[in-house]
Amino acid sequence: MTDLQTVAMQGSTGLWHWLQAMRISIGFTTYQTNRLFLVGCKADVRLAVNERLFDKPMGLYVDGNRLVMTTRYAIWQLENRLGTGEPMWIVTGFMCPVSVTRPVI
């Protein structure tokens, strides 16, 4: 996982408005660049894109406020740590400002 590649992203027209209207964020992995991406909305009508490096991230599963991801040798659990009433505009973890990442297995 030492070969770090630069990744450029550009959102489609209307993506921010759709994410905001649905009140959702999108998570996806790139096996080739070893990244987990989380895309959500900022309050200033810009996309919030957060990336984390993992060793060969693959499958994603959402269960309530948890995001579970498989990697080459581990299963990771990311948990939503938003406090009650905190807005979900900034994504720096799984739909939240602070997330806990730990290998489950």
Amount of beta strand? 35-45%
Spatial order of the strands forming the largest sheet: 4-5-6-7
**What is the residue-averaged pLDDT?**
76
Q: From the structure provided, what is the oligomeric state, counting identical versus distinct chains?
A: single chain
Which structural class should the secondary elements be placed in? mainly beta
Largest sheet: 4 strands, antiparallel
Helix content: under 10%
Radius of gyration: 14 Å
The residue ranges in which pLDDT falls below 50 over 5 or more consecutive positions are: 89-101
If helices are DSSP runs of H or I spanning 4 or more residues, what is the number of helices?
Answer: 1
- According to DSSP, the number of beta strands is 7
Structural domain tally: 1
Order of helices and strands: HEEEEEEE
Give the terminus-to-terminus CA distance: 20 Å
Principal-axis shape equals globular
What does this structure look like?
There is one protein chain. With 105 residues, the chain is mainly beta. The protein has one domain. Helices cover 8% and strands 37% of the residues. It contains 1 helix and 7 strands. The strands form 2 sheets. The protein has a 4-stranded antiparallel β-sheet with strand order 4-5-6-7, with no helix packed on it. The chain is globular and about 35 Å long. Residues 89-101 have low confidence and may be disordered.
